[in-house]
Amino acid sequence: MGGSLETSALLQAAELAELARQAARLPQADTMPLPAPDSRVERWRVFDPNGRLVMETSGAEALAWPVLVRRVPIRGPAARLGEVEAARSIRPELGIAAAVALGAGLLGAAIFAVLRILPVRLLRHALDRAAYLSAHDLLTGLPNRTLFADRLRQAVAQSRRAGQPLAVLCLDLDRFKEVNDALGHAGGDRLLCEATQRLSGCLRESDTLARLGGNEFAVIQPRASRPQDAEALARRIIAAIAAPFAIDGQRVTIGVSVGIALSQPGQAIDPLQLLKDADLALFQAKGRRRGDLCFFSPEMNRRLTERRALETDLRIALSEGQFRLHYQPQVDLPSSRVIGAEALLRWDRPGHGNVPPGQFIPLAEETGLVAGIGAWTLREACREASTWPDGLTVAVNVSAVQFRFPGLFETVAAALADSGLAPQRLELEITEGVLLQDNGETLAVLERLRGLGVKIAMDDFGTGYSSLGYLQKFVFDKIKIDRSFISSLGQDPNSDAIVRAVVGISRSLGVRANAEGVESAEQARMLMREGCGEVQGYLFGRPMPPEEFSRFVAARQAA
């Protein structure tokens, strides 16, 4: 200890016990509180106002780390007397807690870093994946319609800058639906993937192949300076797809139809219109024959415009009741007596005049309008036939497409009920296309109609591929001999033989035979000689409006 008078006075004024007591009673400052003097305190020091050490309660032996140190002032009545310092080692458990706290802090920092960085990477990955899925086909990995449209815009812009034409090819896999139905969707998917590989093998690196949906694909061919370049690519594609596929151990053969549209040098190019032109050319190629290619032409565009206008007018005609029915007499050949009539649809299209059914019925079938038109025809034919003399039948053609829509039986039953026409006086004429579907539902509907009392006739017999086979599937009430055989009757031995055979078959089956398109007395005499019992044609009466038909029947009955 120091020995100055000042220090002695200090020690006399503040004995060690008092110093400890004052230190224990010190207020809680903004630093860590000073612990009370007890056995845990390992070192006490007293300093005078000048900072000199006056007293120390332990030896000079160093305290074990970690050490907690606290200094507080000692104040007298008039002035500051000095400072007291307390120091001790932290207990082992506190050291452990500090280590744990430090570790927890580091772990928390690591977790924070992971939770801060990982979601950003996951979000970026998810956004990249979403962007890919929005622009690509999931099955084949090809660009989809959206990405294809963007690539086409870029190709058109580049073509315009370079002054070079380009070609767009639309592709449709022929007979894919049949394969998909036979092998199931899984087999169809494998076929699409293998077809994609073959298509990709036909292209250059600069070409773009996309799947637009279903079995439809499209190709952008830049720098197609000549039509022959696009044609050569189309030929390669057709040849590649024509080779048989091996799907699930089965040999599968399909084809592909190709429509091609070329940009014209020096002309403004609309990418969307270019794709539409290629799609129209594809439609033309499929209509001509499958497995073929076709170039777009302005004439094709004109026909497309007309087709769209025709469809619009058809919808208006159905909603505004523009259709009407004409009736062609059906005559019992031996007695020349009128026994019924076939209802034939007529349409006076505003601004165009009479439109033959052959021009608008196929479009009605493609668009589904045939269901509404067919229902109207049934109702109108039954209503008008109910005013005819008893015993006269009315024949109504039913399209194969109508059987694909639900409710055909209910439509027929409602038409009969609303008109009051006896079911035996209604005859439904169907073509072989109805039975070509070869499903139980179609036959079930026909059986229900027969059970109702409605007669069923096979129209255009002999023009299909399996007419005789269909006669085994369903018992018809009448067989109608196609007019193509009647027109050459007496001139072509083959036609004579076919008519003779059909009449013989009908007689053997116990059903009635009807010859359509009889226009001469010689044809009527030959049919009479062969034993055909029913005819219709210009020789006996042209199709006529309802009022004229009623007068025609009355005149024939009075004769």
Automatic annotation (TrEMBL):
Gene3D superfamilies hit by this protein: 3.30.70.270, EAL domain
Keyword vocabulary terms for this entry: Membrane, Transmembrane, Transmembrane helix
Keyword Transmembrane among record annotations: yes
InterPro entries noted in UniProt: Biofilm_reg_signaling, EAL_dom, EAL_sf, GGDEF_dom, Nucleotide_cyclase, Rev_trsase/Diguanyl_cyclase
Keyword Coiled coil: no
SUPFAM superfamilies: EAL domain-like, Nucleotide cyclase
Domain annotation EAL: ranges: 307-557
Membrane-crossing segments per the record: 94-115
UniProt xrefs under Pfam families: EAL, GGDEF
PROSITE patterns per UniProt: EAL (PS50883), GGDEF (PS50887)
Annotated ranges, domain GGDEF: 164-298
Highest taxon listed in the record's lineage: Bacteria
Stored NCBIfam families: GGDEF (TIGR00254)
Protein name: Diguanylate cyclase (GGDEF) domain-containing protein
Organism name: Paracraurococcus ruber
